[in-house]
Amino acid sequence: MLEIENLHARAGDTAILKGLNLTVNAGEVHAVMGPNGSGKSTLSKIIAGSEDYIVTDGRIRFEGRDLLTLPPEERAAAGIFLGFQYPVEIPGVSNMVFLRAAVNAQRKHRGEPELEAADFLAWVRHRVKQMKMDPAMLSRGVNEGFSGGEKKRNEILQMLVLEPKLMVLDETDSGLDIDALKIVAEGINALRSPARATLLVTHYQRLLDHVQPDHVHVLSGGRIVKSGGPDLARELEEKGYGWLDAA
Amino acid sequence: MSANAQDVRELVKNRSYGAGFVTDIAADTLPPGLDENVIRALSARKKEPDWLLEFRLKAYRRWLTMREPRWAHLRYPAIDYQSISYYSAPKSMAKRPKSLDEVDPKLLETYTKLGIPLKEQEMLAGVAVDVVFDSVSVATTFKKKLAEAGVIFCPISEAVQEYPELVRRYLGSVVPFGDNFFAALNSAVFTDGSFVYIPKGVRCPMELSTYFRINERNTGQFERTLIIAEAGSHVSYLEGCTAPQRDENQLHAAVVELVALDEAEIKYSTVQNWYPGDENGVGGIYNFVTKRGDCRGRRSKIAWTQVETGSAITWKYPSCILRGDESVGEFYSVALTHHHQQADTGTKMIHVGKNTRSTIVSKGIAAGFGQQSYRGLVRVLESADNARNYTQCDSLLIGDRCGAHTFPYTEIRNPTAIVEHEATTSRISDEQLFYARTRGIGEEDAVSMIVNGFCKQVFKELPMEFAVEAQKLLQVSLEGAVG
Q1: B425 touching A, CB under 8 A?
Q2: Residues B388-417: what's their mean pLDDT?
Q3: Is there a contact between A105 and B442 if contact means CB atoms under 8 Å apart?
């Protein structure tokens, strides 16, 4: 589904990704772990289409299409979702208005008719319930005055409403208490299917206890330096990232 | 600077100004220049009574002694008042048409093009319209229906003839002829505008609106609006404005006076879309306007709502004098400056009576090289026990070459007053846009969504039909501000 080959990228004059390779197939859950500053967030933002980075070499394909030429909104319509590490506030724009605009923009892009207001409302309410959120949040501004945990939960809510094919989740576990972590993990697991894939970008093992990855990769110095199964994550949790440099 | 901000620059394009056309029509235009003879000629053309000519001349003489105010955060070259023509009217209006059938079809077509059909059966059912073309009122709709309710809605020049006592009693009673430089000029040379009188206890059966259009080259528009709401009456009034797209700057200096007696309520809404000039700041209307409402009666209420998207220069402070005990003043404003537009706008709330309350919500949006200033005064006099004011003033910046400024003034002379002020300045950030785009929302839609969210508090104060218009106008005005 997602093929990243020899990806090089920089922000300003600083090279961040230096020849990254990663393949994610439909039905798989991959975890990309690594120390701070290794390029984890850069990777997720580049997949989503951020213009803060310049790709200097390599390519990214999504379902066979060249992803790097598409603007973010077209990547979204193609089925890519990025759960932000720091979700943005949009004051005065209610979550409901925002979600509806997003769903309809994606549908329009795919040549599908807009959802009827009543159908949409029922669909969103169902997802809100699933995320154990207060339906009143729908009339509040997008992430406006939300706590860190509420923002993360809202990311997963948006994801459940949009039902993407590829879920890229950037440090979604940070800032969550244990109850919220479980709800978020349930949300992610609810979308696991043979047709979808997940890329969990995380510093810690914590989320992986609740969302079992099929593959774990270590990102360090802008490249994947080690790949393995779920055991690798536990090993990292015990030993930290230092031993990798020594290796 | 991020890659996005760079794009923002590249993407700033021409906005489309749909109302920029010129109507080719024979006009009776006074030659440029201003002196007492011009004022006499203008007054004679309108067959005005002596007292009104006197009013004009007094104002003119005062104006000669005054200086153009320079305290606003605005930059523009000196205005040459002798190069402006102070009167222009379509020739076909020489004899006032008795009905729409007698109005020059070219004029009717102008308004149809602007989306304001004047045939009553084609109009929004609940809205009566007075249309002012350059210096004269062309038509007023639904007059009969309004007359049945006792409501007077007509051009002010007609009111001078038909209801001279009313006009004489109230004209200049809220904005005195020497109030300020532009008000004095207007008092000397005002040509037309609307007159509204709502009798005691009457709830005006429909929305009233005036549509102002500048057409002729080198002319100024100096309209004068007077609204009187007798005790217990209620009226909602809306004005809209457009002008052709021209390289020169044209002056618009209006005066609006509102009088609300006991328990009367006036809601005055403006959608101002004068030609803003092009993307290089060439042309556009200079909009210097004095608007003031007098809550003369107890428990009276005046609410100003304005959406200001046009004009090269906007200098405008719709104000309320809260004279009556328990009277209420409100000011809701959205002002947008794009390209090289500049706006210095806000309000004055003068608390005189006891238990008076005022609310100010101002939303300024600046894009391109636009400059946006909020200037507001809250004055609580010694007599105003328990006065309350809440002011919220927010600025939104799009791009990094525009500016937003806030100049709040408070003068409190009564210790029981409670005055609150909140101000924020924010920017449509690259992060916000990226966030919306990763959800599938295109850049233009994202900007317009964010801006609408920012303005929501004000839009909900507009009459329904106009709230939708205002949103669309904002969207058009921001075209090219980003992506």
Answers
A1: no
A2: 94
A3: yes
Q: Does A88 touch chain B (CB under 8 A)?
A: yes
* Radius of gyration, CA atoms only, chain A: 18
pLDDT in tens, B58-106: 999 999 999 999 999 999 999 999 998 888 887 777 766 677 777 777 7
Model pTM score: 0.83
Dihedral, A134, A140, A142, A147 alpha carbons, nearest 10: -60
Please tell me which of the candidates A49, A50, A92 has its beta carbon nearest to residue B453.
A92
| Bridge pairing between strands A2-11 and A54-62 | antiparallel
Residue A184 Cα distances to A24, A124, A156, A208, B392, angstroms: 22, 16, 7, 12, 37
Q: Where are the alpha helices (DSSP H) in B247-334?
A: none
Q: What is the pLDDT of residues B150-196, one digit of tens each?
A: 999 998 999 999 999 999 999 999 999 999 999 999 999 998 889 99
Q: Which of A89, A93, A162 sits opposite B449 (nearest CB)?
A: A93
3-state helix, strand, coil in chain B (%, to 5): 25, 35, 40
User: ipTM of this predicted complex?
Assistant: 0.96
Q: Judged by CB atoms within 8 Å, which residues 102-131 of A form the interface with B?
A: 102-103, 105-106, 109
Banded pLDDT at A159 (limits 50, 70, 90): very high
Tokens of B191: 């040509």
Q: Is B430 within 8 Å of A52 when comparing Cβ atoms?
A: yes
Half-sphere exposure of B62 (CA within 13 A, CB side): 20
DSSP per-residue string spanning B49-65:
-HHHHHHHHHHHHHHHT
Provide the b/e sequence for B66-95 (b: ≥16 CB within 10 Å): eeeeeebbbeeeebebeebbbbbbbebbee
Cβ neighbours of B457 in A, within 8 Å: 92
Classify residue A23 by its DSSP letter.
E
* B424, closest residue in chain A (CA to CA): A91
The per-residue pLDDT for B135 is 66
C-alpha to C-alpha distance for B19 and A51, rounded to whole angstroms = 37
Phi, psi of B156 (to 5 degrees): -65, -30
B205 in contact with chain A, both atoms CB, cutoff 8 A = no
3-state secondary structure of A90: strand
Q: A2-93+165-239: which CATH architecture?
A: 3-Layer(aba) Sandwich (3.40)
pLDDT of residue B107: 72
- According to DSSP, residue B24 is labeled -
Give the least confident one: A159-168, B207-216, B350-359, B445-454: B207-216
Contacts of B50 by beta carbon, 8 Å cutoff, 6+ apart: none
Q: Quick one: CA torsion of B75, B76, B80, B86, rounded to 10 degrees?
A: -100
